[in-house]
Amino acid sequence: MSTQPTLAGTTGTSNNASSTHPKIAIIGAGPGGLTLARLLHLQDVPFTLYDREGGPAERNQGGTLDLHPGSGQLALKVAGLYEEFTKRARFEGDCLKLVTANGTVLLDEGNKQQGGQEYSGDPRGPPERPEIDRCQLREMLLNSLKEGSVYWGHKLCKVQAHPPVTDDGNETYTLHFTYSGEDIIQGPFDIVIGADGARSNVRPLLSTEKPFYSGISMVELWALDVDNRNPWLSKYVGSGSVFMYDQGRAIFAQRNGNGSIRVYVCVQQPESWFDDCGIDWNSSAKAREQLVDGYFSDCADDIKRLILDSCDEVVLRRLDMLPIGITWEHRGGLTLLGDAAHLMTPFAGEGVNSAMHDALELADAIIHALKLGRGLDGISEEIALYEKVMFTRSQEKAQETWNSLSGACFVKDGAETFLKMLASKGRGGTLVQR
Q1: Which of 27, 102, 279, 414 fits a disulfide with 196 by CB distance 3.0 to 4.6 angstroms?
Q2: Same domain, 356 and 399
Q3: Region (Disordered) spans which residues (predicted)?
């Protein structure tokens, strides 16, 4: 059940904290917003966390993701959640099969065992990037907060800025939501943090930039209970992932922790492709057949079966992005993290990791200023420094993502190009003919 805070901005945690603390609102209970909330909670910094969804299980959270040592995993360590993460993570998920459109297996790292105990003689040792289902990550983060920390069902419509009351004061902000069919106003808040994703309603107060189409449309297909219902698909994908890259098209098949596999079929097509391609998206069976006939008919049977055998759900996703190197002029009391700040496509696996890294550095900035007793002006200066570092880091990750998309994933002989990229990073590099 959703909880409605008072107009004064009741805090989601640490309600007994000192009144000298700034009133902080976090918009969005995704991985970035929840990580930030956890880190502030550990230091008894009060906040109010809002999310538009009616509850944590209202919407499918997506498939699996790998958390990187220097970003996502690091944030969990500082948040005191790394041990819990290792219990939920699937170390066996960090293995890759790389194939070409004609079915040639270029790289097959084999199946790794649960818990990271055995690695098939892999000279790299234990996996550095274990997989965790997004729903598991969110549950773990939510469980680390006090009950009632998230105010669900609050759809942010507008952030309204108010001029300072005194000459030496700072702007404050009220938040306009729809909640249970009614328009409500929350605030005023001293600090508003937009962790509200691609269509952020906080971003317009900082930047005029909007997400735009990356050129890639993705069809997400589900295959449930694969061990029992489709042993071939289960064996072909194994415990990790299968990647196929080719000119203008790519396929990713990934094992999830609930006995399912998700297959992501990507095509380089115009923005209106979902509407104009003639595929009957209302019929799962027909859509999969038309997708194969129209775009993968020259592929090996194994590649076609990845699409045809994933018959439980069809989800259409247009992949958008923000400009590489997006910045904004610092404005006291406002900032962004995650997709709201630097939306990327998934072709380097940096989205959630970058969001959690943002949360770690932003929490550190706020906490550092508070411990020094620097007040709102000091917090604003620390947030400005956070933004400066985040701009540089996110530009590097966004450029890496774009280079992967444009230089490997959707080019002729893309699988071979991707193998070379792996080899340059000390992974793979041996051609396996199957």
Answers
A1: 27
A2: yes
A3: 1-21, 108-131
3-state SS assignment for residue 35: helix
Residue 188 lies in a domain: yes
Q: Which two tokens stand for residue 391?
A: 């701009």
DSSP structure class, residue 280: -
Specify if 246 maps to a domain.
yes
Do 313 and 353 lie in a common domain?
Answer: no
Residues 281 and 355 in one domain: no
Residue 332 is part of a domain; what is its CATH number?
3.50.50.60
Of 303, 321, 339, which residue constitutes the final position of a domain? 321
Are residues 23 and 191 in contact, defined by beta-carbon separation less than 8 angstroms? yes
- Shared domain for 202 and 222, answered yes or no, is no
Full-model pTM: 0.91
| Same domain (yes/no): 253, 341 | no
Q: Is residue 9 part of a domain?
A: no
Walking along the chain (434 residues) 10 residues at a time, the average pLDDT comes out as 36 41 96 98 97 86 89 97 94 91 92 45 58 94 95 97 83 96 96 97 97 98 96 95 96 94 97 97 96 97 97 95 98 97 94 97 97 93 98 97 92 90 67 38
Give the HSE-up count for residue 185: Cα atoms under 13 Å, Cβ half-sphere.
7
Structure tokens at 1: 């059940």
- Do 250 and 303 touch, CB atoms closer than 8 A? no
- What are φ and ψ of residue 252, in 5° steps? -125, 125
Q: How far apart are CA 21 and CA 35, in angstroms?
A: 20
CA distances from 49 to 33, 36, 96 (A): 8, 10, 37
Listed residue (266, 244, 262) closest to 418, CA to CA? 244
Are 268 and 356 members of one domain? no
pLDDT at res. 428: 54
Q: Is the dihedral of CA 397, 403, 404, 405 positive or negative?
A: positive
Structural domains of the chain, count: 2
H-state helical runs in 9-94: 31-42, 72-78, 82-88
Dihedral, CA atoms, 135, 140, 142, 147, nearest 10 degrees? 130
> Containing domain of residue 296, as a range?
212-321
Do 331 and 315 fall within a single domain? Answer: no
How many CB atoms are closer than 10 A to CB 143?
11
**Residue 85 burial (CB count, 10 A):** 20
Write the secondary structure of 328-387 as one string of H (helix), E (strand) and C (coil).
CCCCCCEEECCHHHHCCCCCCCCHHHHHHHHHHHHHHHHHHHHHCCCHHHHHHHHHHHHH
- Does 98 reside within a domain? no
How far is residue 73's CA from residue 93's CA, in Å, rounded to a whole number?
16
